[in-house]
Specification:
This protein is of the alpha/beta class. The chain has seven helices and seven strands.
Length: 215
């Protein structure tokens, strides 16, 4: 299925363009073993798009569900090297003390364990309960390195400037209008990126990041 049809299918289901782009990118990633989902809630929709067939157990640590913990200041209630993977989706922008939760995630990972997450970039203010930050790729790489991670990968998610405009409009338009609007913006963005490919890195809707804990 083409990228256009995949995105349109997600938008018909009521997703914003940012969330649709994120979901499609997540299809490339596998989650396996004993997994900690930091800030994930009971049943996040992103799990439907990750390959989770080899996930043995999923634990949740956030402020409302699972192991209820204040991610701003509390240590995660697990021993060192407990999990093979830690998930962290759409969380860091809501955490003021983000270095703390990153270092705690590193602590509870096994050797060669993986952190996988996502942050939005071009997005409206969305408190849950607060909204503090927007991270560039450079900032994410530095934060992950300072938290002890290695083999760091940060990838842009989205398209060009017309994707950014389209996503901003989608935040308040009904689904029917989103579906009508998207094909035009998709074609305009495609044209702009053919003329200026560098715009893809300058106008990300968000970033997927992945990093490992080494010995």
């Amino acid at each position: 299925m083409s990228t256009f049809l995949k995105l349109l299918k997600q938008i018909i289901r009521g997703k914003t363009l940012l969330r649709a782009c994120m979901n499609i990118e997540l299809e490339k990633y596998k989650v396996s073993g004993k997994v900690l989902d930091v800030g994930g809630g009971k049943k996040p929709s992103y799990l439907e798009h990750l390959n989770t067939e080899n996930m043995s157990e999923r634990f949740v640590a956030d402020m409302e569900t699972g192991e209820r913990v204040d991610l701003e200041k509390d240590n995660l209630p697990y021993d060192e090297e407990t999990f093979s993977q830690v998930l962290m989706f759409n969380l860091l922008e809501h955490i003021y003390n983000h270095k703390h939760v990153l270092k705690e995630s590193h602590r509870v990972l096994e050797e060669n364990g993986t952190l996988l997450g996502f942050v939005p970039f071009f997005i409206n203010y969305h408190p849950d309960p607060r909204d503090f930050f927007r991270y560039t790729g450079d900032a994410l790489e530095r934060l992950l390195k300072e938290s002890g991670f290695e083999d760091i990968s940060v990838r842009e998610v989205g398209g060009g400037p017309f994707f950014v405009n389209c996503n901003n409009l989608m935040t308040f338009l009904p689904t029917a209008f989103r579906v009508l609007l998207f094909p035009l913006y998709f074609l305009l963005d495609l044209l702009v990126l053919k003329l200026r490919p560098s715009f893809r890195s300058r106008y990300p809707l968000g970033y997927i990041f992945q990093a490992k804990k080494k010995k």
